[in-house]
Amino acid sequence: MRDRSVRAGHLRTLFFGLVATVGACGGGVEEDSIRASDFTTDVCKTDLLEGVTPSAPVDYLELSSVVLGGHPQDPPKRLARRGTKCLTATDKARCETAMASLDLPKSERADIVSFVKHYLVYTRGDEVGAIQTSDELRGFLAPFENVKDAALLLRAFSAQSLHCYVPNTRSRGDSFEFYTSTGDTCGGDVLDNVVRVRPDGVMEVVASEIAEKGDPTCRFGRRPEGYTPTPTRAASIGEYLAVAAELEAASVPAFRRLARELRAHGAPAALVSRAELAARDEVRHARATKRLAERFGGTVTRPMVGKLPVRSLAEIAEENAREGCVGETFGALLATVQAARATDPEVRREMEIIARDETEHAALAWDAAEWFERLLDDDARARVRQARTSAVAELAASLDGGFSSAVLGLPSPAEMRSLLARLEPALVTLAA
C-alpha cells in the first residue's frame, strides 16, 4: 500500500493540471426569459418587519424561526423585531407572562428531514398572540396594500425563496410580483418564478422556468448511508454555501463510521487514524462553510443522520468506491478549482484549506480501496468496480446544470463536464 503523501501528491499534481484546462475565470449563468432587470427594487435590503402594517396597530412584532427535526436544545432564532413589548398593556407583568406562555413550536429531534418553521409574535394592548401559518398572517395583515406585507408573507410563510441582492419586486395593478426560486440542485431542478401576491394575500405562480438542472446524486463528498440532504433552494451564493455546509457536516459521521469499520475489520492503524483525522477535518470544514454561508445570507440546516452500524467488508468497499473514489475525488478537484478561481479572498483562503484536506480524503479512499481489493473475493471485486463505474456515469449525467459563481470560483456546467471527462481516465489508472 502506498504512503499517504505519495498518493495525495499524485492527486494534487493531477488536479493542478486539470485546473489549468478550465481557464482563470469563473463560469457564468445563462440569462433566461425571467430576469432581474424586469423588476424594480430589492425588498431584501430592508428588515423583514420594516414597513409591515397589521390590519390593527400593534405595540410589538417579533419574527423568529425554529428548526423542526433539529436538536432539542437548539433555541429559536430571532430574525427581526419592531416596537416595544406590552407598551400599552394595562398590566405589563401579566402581558409579559402571557408572552412567555405562548404555545410556540420548538426544535425537536425527529427521524425526518429538518425544515425551518417561522412564527410571528405580537402584542396589542392587553392582547398577546402568535401567527404560525400563512392563513393566520393573511388575516393579520389583509388587505395587502403594502409591498412589505406581501414580502413578509412570501419570505416567511411560503416555499418560495426571493432572489436577493438583485431587483426582485414590482407592482402589477393592485398586486405585487416577486422574482423567486424554488427547488434545489441536490435532487431536483431549481426553478425561477414570478409570484403574484393579490390584495387578499393569495399567492399564485404566474411564470416559471428551469434555471438550473439539478444534481440527483449530490456526490461531491462522502455521504453517510441513509442521509438525505435537506430540500433547499440553492439559487444564491448563500444558499449554495448552506448546502455545502450541511454536506460537510454530514461527512463527519460518515468518516467516524469508516474509522470504526476499518478498525473492526482489522485494517492497518494508519488507515484508521486517517479516517479519524478526516472526520476532524470535516468538522472544521463545516464550521468554515457555515460561517461563509451566513456571511452571504444563507441559513444552514443540521444534517439528520441515523444509527450507522458496522457493515460487511464488501458493503464498505462498494460505498467507498462511490462516495470516496468518485465523489470525494471529484469534490477535491472542484475545491482545487475554487481555490484557484474564487474572486472573493475569504472564499479563496478557505477553499485552499478545504482543497488540501479533501485531496487527502480522496487519497484515503483510494488507499482503502487498495486494501479492500486484497481481501475481497472475485464477485465482490466485480461489484466494487461496477459501483465505481456507475457512480461516474451518474455524476456525468448530473452535470447538465448547477449553480455557477465567479465569487465562489465554481465552474460552469460545461466546464464541470470537461473536468470529469479529463479526470475519468485517471480514475481508471488509480484503480489499477
Task: Label this structure with key terms.
single chain; 432 residues; alpha+beta; five-stranded antiparallel beta sheet; 10 helices; 46% helix
Structure, explained:
The chain has 432 residues and is of the alpha+beta class. The chain contains 10 helices and 9 strands. Strands 5, 6, 7, 8 and 9 form a 5-stranded antiparallel sheet that branches. Helix 1 crosses helix 7, helix 6 packs antiparallel against helix 8 and helix 7 (313-341) packs across helix 10.
Strand portion: 5-15%
Pick out the low-confidence regions: 24-32, 109-114
What is the ordering of alpha helices and beta strands?
HEEHEEHHEEEEEHHHHHH
Q: Which shape, going by the Cα principal axes? A: elongated
Oligomerization category of the chains in this entry: single chain
Largest sheet: 5 strands, antiparallel
Q: Report helical residue fraction.
A: 40-55%
Number of strands: 9
Counting helices, strands and paired strands, the structural category is alpha+beta
> Overall mean pLDDT score?
84
Quickly count the helices: 10
Distance between the termini: 13 Å
Q: Rounded to an integer, what's the Rg over CA atoms? A: 25 Å
